[in-house]
């Protein structure tokens, strides 16, 4: 890296990324390739349940006891990057974590690609 800006187009399959599963394809109006969401604790593993899971830091960020609480800010726990950490309800930050590990088996994990 240098002071000269570098353009990185993650939509392009030709753009080099570390690892075979570094990106996911998002379909819809704006088909794109994105990075996986949800490594809240930055341990290089997206984990929905079990030890060192990425859900617990969300609950801790909103106070730890009342799951309907929210907190504002672009924090590491703001998985969907809407400026609000939300554990339950519409646009919560928990669902993208489950989607990143496959969507239906909460014990799955997704290994990160940044070492």
Question: What features would you describe in this structure?
Answer:
- There is one protein chain.
- The chain is an alpha+beta fold and 115 residues long.
- The chain is built from two helices and six strands; from the N terminus they run E-E-E-H-E-E-H-E.
- Strands 1-2 form a two-stranded antiparallel ribbon. It has a two-stranded antiparallel sheet with strand order 3-6. Strands 4-5 form a two-stranded antiparallel sheet.
- Strand 1 and strand 2 form a beta hairpin.
- It is globular, with a radius of gyration of 15 Å.
- The two termini are 17 Å apart.
Index terms:
globular, two-stranded antiparallel ribbon, 17% strand, alpha+beta, 6 strands
Strands, helices and their partners?
Layout: E1 23-26, E2 32-35, E3 45-47, H1 56-61, E4 70-72, E5 84-86, H2 95-100, E6 109-111
Antiparallel strand pairs: 1-2, 3-6, 4-5
Please, what is the oligomeric state? single chain
Compute the number of helices.
2
- Spatial sequence of strands, sheet with the most strands: 1-2
Measured between the Cα atoms of the first and last residue, the distance is 17 Å
Brief summary of the model shown:
The protein has 115 residues and is α+β, with helices and mostly antiparallel strands.
């Amino acid at each position: 890296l240098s002071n000269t800006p570098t353009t990185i187009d993650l939509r392009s399959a030709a753009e080099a990324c570390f690892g075979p599963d570094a990106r996911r394809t998002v379909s819809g109006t704006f088909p794109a390739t994105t990075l996986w969401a949800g490594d809240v604790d930055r341990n290089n593993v997206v984990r929905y349940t079990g030890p060192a899971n990425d859900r617990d830091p969300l609950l801790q960020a909103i106070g730890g006891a009342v799951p309907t609480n929210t907190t504002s800010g672009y924090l590491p726990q703001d998985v969907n990057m809407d400026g609000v950490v939300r554990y339950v309800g519409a646009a919560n930050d928990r669902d993208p974590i489950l989607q990143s590990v496959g969507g239906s088996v909460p014990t799955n994990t997704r290994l990160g690609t940044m070492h």
